[in-house]
């Protein structure tokens, strides 16, 4: 039996969780506590790093205590402490990793430094027991990537955004249309009563031989459309949202289709290939329907962990800790580990042009 306490503080969720794994059994999430700071950032239309760091300091002790209490365990029963050490906002990472170091040092437990993206990448093994290799589509406020997951610590990035992340594009579109933060759910809601054919927005990178994503040109087109019909009626806003959502779905579908074909070609021996989605944008119904259809057409199973495990949480961090312990891949000198605001999952693939411009979230 392995029981790990996980801590997540890389953006605007303060989270702690205890996950247990008994040999030969399915893993169990004994507790998962997530405190979302959305209200503290809403007035600013986005995450403010200093406010986030301060809120983590204030909340984390109580969140860890609650996660331990909900799990019915005490610190003495825990085998290791796993904490997100990057990528993300450095203030929050320092709070989480230092707290984890203190808990681990004072209780004599091992500490495991976790890459937040690895947490997202391995979640489908916690929820669905998925076997390697599989494809991961991560679409959040800070990342838009297609990653080949070959094993624990063994990732290959097949595509990334060369400018904005997809969630960021939703958030910026919302801001331009004076819709509340966070933008994604509000753009989706407005789009429901909109005419998706009224505005013809570009489909950046669609059909390109380069596998990556781009969303900043689309954002400019949204701004131009909004300016051209201002002052905006509710129907104008709905039509822009519907047209935008259709454009991003179309582009995303094209990029994912390409990756599915590559997986088929390179991993023809995998009998039941799978595409896993993670990140807040995976909640979008139009995008989800498009991905499900693509998977069905291409013989892939579509794996979407429950939404609370797709967005930021600490169960995925505790689970990544368990996976690393099992694989003998826990950092031996994690107490010396310095938080990394940038930490690519795949250190081999070269950064793409413009990839420095990413959002705050991971
Ligand atoms: O994974 P997440 O909760 O946090 C990180 O970025 O790590 O993702 C948040 C992002 C935000 O940009 C939000 O606008 C977007 O996911 N989002 C959505 C929807 N729900 C959340 N985007 C489109 N449609 C949605 N329904
Ligand atoms: Zn995340």
Automatic annotation (TrEMBL):
Main location class: cytoplasm
Subcellular location: Cytoplasm
Alphabetically ordered keywords of this record: Acyltransferase, Cytoplasm, Iron, Metal-binding, Transferase, tRNA processing
Cofactor(s) the record lists: Fe(2+)
All residue ranges annotated as the Gcp-like domain in the record: 29-319
Binding site for substrate: 138-142, 171, 184, 188, 284
Pfam families documented for this protein: TsaD
Domain of life from the UniProt record: Bacteria
Entry GO MF terms: tRNA N(6)-L-threonylcarbamoyladenine synthase activity
EC number: 2.3.1.234
UniProt record similarity statement: Belongs to the KAE1 / TsaD family.
Biological function: Required for the formation of a threonylcarbamoyl group on adenosine at position 37 (t(6)A37) in tRNAs that read codons beginning with adenine. Is involved in the transfer of the threonylcarbamoyl moiety of threonylcarbamoyl-AMP (TC-AMP) to the N6 group of A37, together with TsaE and TsaB. TsaD likely plays a direct catalytic role in this reaction.
This protein's name: tRNA N6-adenosine threonylcarbamoyltransferase
Gene name of the record: tsaD
């Amino acid at each position: 039996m392995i029981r790990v306490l996980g801590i997540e503080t890389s953006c605007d969720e303060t989270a702690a969780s205890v996950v247990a794994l008994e040999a030969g059994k399915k893993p169990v999430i004994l507790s998962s506590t997530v405190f979302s700071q959305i209200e503290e950032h809403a007035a600013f239309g986005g995450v403010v790093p200093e406010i986030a760091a301060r809120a983590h300091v204030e909340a984390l002790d109580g969140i860890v205590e609650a996660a331990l209490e909900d799990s019915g365990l005490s610190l003495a029963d825990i085998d290791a402490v796993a904490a997100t050490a990057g990528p993300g906002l450095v203030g929050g990472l320092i709070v989480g990793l230092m707290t984890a170091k203190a808990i681990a040092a004072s209780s004599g437990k091992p500490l495991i430094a976790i890459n937040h993206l690895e947490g997202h990448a391995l979640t489908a093994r916690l929820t669905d027991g998925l076997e390697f290799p599989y494809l991961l589509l991560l679409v959040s406020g800070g990342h838009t990537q297609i990653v080949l997951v070959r094993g624990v610590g063994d990732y290959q990035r097949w595509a990334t955004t060369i400018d904005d992340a997809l969630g960021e594009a939703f958030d910026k579109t919302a801001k331009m249309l004076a819709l509340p933060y966070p933008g994604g759910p509000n753009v989706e809601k407005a789009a429901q009563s909109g005419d998706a054919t009224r505005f013809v927005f570009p489909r950046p990178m669609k059909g390109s031989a380069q596998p990556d994503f781009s969303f900043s040109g689309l954002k400019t087109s949204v701004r131009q459309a909004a300016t051209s019909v201002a002052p905006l009626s509710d129907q104008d806003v709905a039509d822009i949202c519907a047209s935008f959502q259709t454009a991003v779905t179309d582009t995303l579908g094209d990029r994912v289709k390409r990756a599915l074909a590559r997986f088929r070609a390179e991993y023809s021996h995998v009998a039941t290939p799978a595409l896993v989605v993670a990140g807040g944008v995976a909640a979008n119904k139009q995008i989800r329907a498009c991905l499900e259809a693509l998977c069905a057409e291409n013989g892939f199973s579509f794996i979407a962990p429950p939404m609370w495990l797709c967005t930021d949480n600490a169960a995925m961090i505790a689970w990544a800790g368990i996976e690393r312990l099992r694989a003998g891949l826990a950092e031996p000198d994690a107490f010396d580990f310095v938080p990394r605001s940038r930490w690519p999952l795949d250190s081999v693939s070269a950064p793409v042009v413009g990839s420095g411009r990413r959002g705050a979230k991971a």
